[in-house]
Every structure is written in C-alpha cells, then in structure tokens.
Write a structure and sequence with these properties.
- This protein has one domain: UbiA prenyltransferase (Tetracycline Repressor, domain 2, Orthogonal Bundle).
- It is built from twelve helices and no strands.
- The protein is globular and about 55 Å long.
- Helix 5 runs antiparallel to helix 6.
- 76% of the residues lie in helices and 0% in strands.
- It is mostly helical and 278 residues long.
Length: 278
Amino acid sequence: MIKISHTLFAMPFAIGAGFLAASETTHEIPNPIIAFLQIILAVAFARTAAMSFNRWADKDIDGKNPRTSGRSIPAGRLSSGKVLTATILSALGFIGICAWISHIALLLSPIVLLVVLGYSYTKRVTWLCHAVLGTGLGLAPVGAWLVVTGDLSHPIPWLLGTAVLFWTTGFDIIYACQDAEVDQAQSLNSIPACFGVGKALLISKLCHVMMVILLGGLCFEMGFPLSIVTATLITIVLLIIEHLIISKGNLEKIEISFFQINVAISLMFLIAMIFEVS
C-alpha cells in the first residue's frame, strides 16, 4: 500500500545529507551509527505515516479514479480503520524517534507531521498542493543535518532541502498530469487540473530550473567539490531527458519519467555526498 520503492525519493537525500553534515561539522559525532539509524527510522516512520494517511484521506477520491481504484482501501484489501491505525502508530513512532534524537527534534516533530499529513487535504483547497509535498520531502535532508550536527544555522541543509522541494514539486506536477481530467471532474486543485497539461508541464520545467539554480548555490557554498558538481551536471541532463520524454500529447511514459529518472537523481546525489566524506 505504501510503495516502499517511493522511499527512494527522500531517503537517499536524507542519508546523503547526513554524510554531508559529517564532512562539514567541526564537532565530533558521538556515535555515527546511531545517528544514521535515527535518520533512517525517522524518514521511514514519517513517510509511512504520510502515505497511510493519504490512502485513508483519499479513499473516496481514489475509488472514483480508474487509475487508483485498485488501491488497497477502494479495492477492499484493507479497511479504513487498519490504515488509520497504521498512520497513528507511524506518527507516534516518528515522534518517539525525534525524542530520541534531541529536544529540538522533538519540538519540531509536530511541524513535520503537520506538513506531511496535511498534504493529503491540500489538493482540495489549493493548486499549491505539489509544493506542500515538495516541502515534506525537502525537510528530510534538513532533518538529517539536525540529527548529525544539532544545528540548523548552516546554509547547506537549507539549499539542499529547498532544491529537493522544487525537484519534488516539478516531478509531482508531471505525475498529476495523468489525472487532470479526473481531478477536474472531482473539483480537485492540482496544477494540471487548474491550468491544463500544457501550462503544468511548463511550470514543472520552471521548478526544475529552480532546483538547478539552488544546486549551483550549494556547489558555490561548498567550494565546488567535484562530486557535487558532477552530480549537478548529470542532474541537468536527466531533467532535460525527463521533460523530452513527456509532452502534452504523450503522457503514457510518465511512470518512466516519474520513477526511474528521479530515483536515479536521488541515488546519484547519495553517492556524491558519501564521496565527500571519503
């Protein structure tokens, strides 16, 4: 139900940010293994809570959409109660991990949950829903930096997190193009439903241009390390390919664009950020 494979969007950036934080901090990390275990568990619990809640909140919407009618609740494989219970347990697990990390992380945990759970209702009220999802994923590297350093005053996690925000917003707009007509019929406010597929794809391109600009800022802030610069240049090529694959009249390859290319980008940055520590 929660598509474990989609964890490959946020998790690599979170783990990579942890390695990046380790390379940049002047403080000794008491137990690196524990720190990375905390990062992995926090992302896993937050994402499970978010996805479970999304499936619960959207059960009626999903049931009216031919593409999503086979999901667990509309198809009758799981009850609403079980999915909501999974959400609550995952949210409590996330709060518990944050309490384990630090007092600051615990204080910030409700804000993170508000973003990742609140996203499920944003499509009902605003076409900025894609940016809310992007914010949720963008918080992953910021949170990982906090785990390792205990400090969020450095610009690097914010540059990386905001780059992830625009990257996610861009590819989520592409993904939503396949549901544009269904969203319009249900009065849902995705960008494709509100502005049309053509304009949505243009907005997606602009989001990805912003991602590249922010990655350029990250490279500048870090002194243009070879691994991060190389990952940024390859990302530019992959994003161009992604937008060449998808066009207004050619949406059948969205799954390739949405999953394969974007997972390649996240894994590539994971490798690049690990390389900075080696």
